[in-house]
Specification:
The protein has a two-stranded antiparallel ribbon. It is mainly α. The termini are far apart. It is built from 4 helices and 2 strands.
Length: 111
């Protein structure tokens, strides 16, 4: 395998992600910082390149990580909805109590 086969360009990565090359290049830093995408190789900034093996490993795990993160968000939303429902059923504000009040008269109490 030659060096050119070990290197992948922005066009190929964008196609694998289902993005246009321009959209991928705009999102590249966020993908690197937030999603763990490998950093580009040093060299010509106008024609960025990445190691094919590193990008391939990242792409293999990218969808699994995204799916897990989305499932965690959904789980958090379900838990919060359950908490809110329980608060509505069991937690009553003090001002909402309208029942009789007990008055205690200790004036005649003996020591």
């Amino acid at each position: 395998m030659t060096l050119s086969q070990d290197i992948v360009g922005a066009e190929e990565i964008a196609a694998a992600l289902g993005l246009t090359k321009e959209h991928f290049l705009r999102r590249r830093r966020a993908l690197e910082e937030q999603d763990g995408m490998p950093a580009r190789l040093p060299g010509n900034a106008k024609k960025p390149r990445w190691w094919r093996a590193a990008v391939s490993r990242w792409l293999d795990s990218y969808s699994d990580r995204k799916r897990a993160a989305e499932a965690e968000i959904v789980q958090d939303e379900i838990v919060e909805a359950d908490r809110q429902a329980l608060r509505l059923v069991y937690a009553r504000p003090a001002a909402a109590f309208t029942g009789p009040r007990l008055a205690v008269d200790n004036t005649g109490a003996r020591a």
